[in-house]
């Protein structure tokens, strides 16, 4: 336990942090299925020893496995969904080591979202070990690919949600401790532009610059932004050409789309996919544009059932000694999938901190125990 620990929350959170450290020291980039599976093995072992009914689903599309752990009981479950993959490549620990500095515990993936998945694991394991009665069975689904849009796990998440009375998502709380009752929908698109190479000095007129075509795409994509409606686009990364003295024969980019409503998602998806036809009249012959992709996560709308779930969580949090404000968050999560099915979903139930996907990533580790207690309270009492 860290030497800085003081007070009841720190005393209870210290042993949890010691175990979470083992999770952080296992690097789990989404792109390495074997690495993600090593952490899944650890979770599977702990939950199996506690008596969970386990179902391990082999990975597909090059991603790691999934684990569905369930407590005894019949009927629809309280479902908790967490991911084990991170955005950090192997070797990140060497330059961004796990460390504890006062109230902050740093490390790649600790905030997004190993701490959240860990407290879900810890809560279910404690329920099983202690034989605590719950109103409903509790199911924990651990997934390997949320950071790239959950391509291999979405169908499993949705199937589990259809068999649930409520879904809890322990994605990180905000720095101020907010949980999440709504999220924007997310679309991802890839753009490829083909032109014709030529020497930029002696045969410029024979070339057709793919970069010019890409510039028109970028301008059009930015023109779709409507902040009043909650619509944003972001173009990155961007690439094109080979050398300054060669007219670029190819170029491309990716486009991130965020929308507040399903209707805007459908409308903007159509508009982006139609850009090759829309822009063609203004481009020189010989430039071809291709746009692929679509909406990846539907919007997660705030609903009366979701707000009732939030009020239950807020009351339990108060009993555990802290406020639980709520927020509407622009980033997507696997909660988007479950909320879109009409299943009451509460997100952002993980540990406060900051720096997701950034070098200063950290959690406020003294919040491990109280946040875990709230998640456990929801697991035990929802019905």
UniProtKB/TrEMBL annotation:
One of its GO terms (molecular function) is metal ion binding. InterPro entries: ArgE/DapE_CS, Bact_exopeptidase_dim_dom, Pept_M20_glutamate_carboxypep, Peptidase_M20, Peptidase_M20_dimer, Peptidase_M20A. Gene3D superfamilies: 3.30.70.360, Zn peptidases. PROSITE patterns: ARGE_DAPE_CPG2_1. The active site is at residues 85, 146. It comes from the Bacteria. Pfam families: M20_dimer, Peptidase_M20. PANTHER family: ACETYLORNITHINE DEACETYLASE (PTHR43808), BLL0789 PROTEIN (PTHR43808:SF9). This is M20 family metallopeptidase.
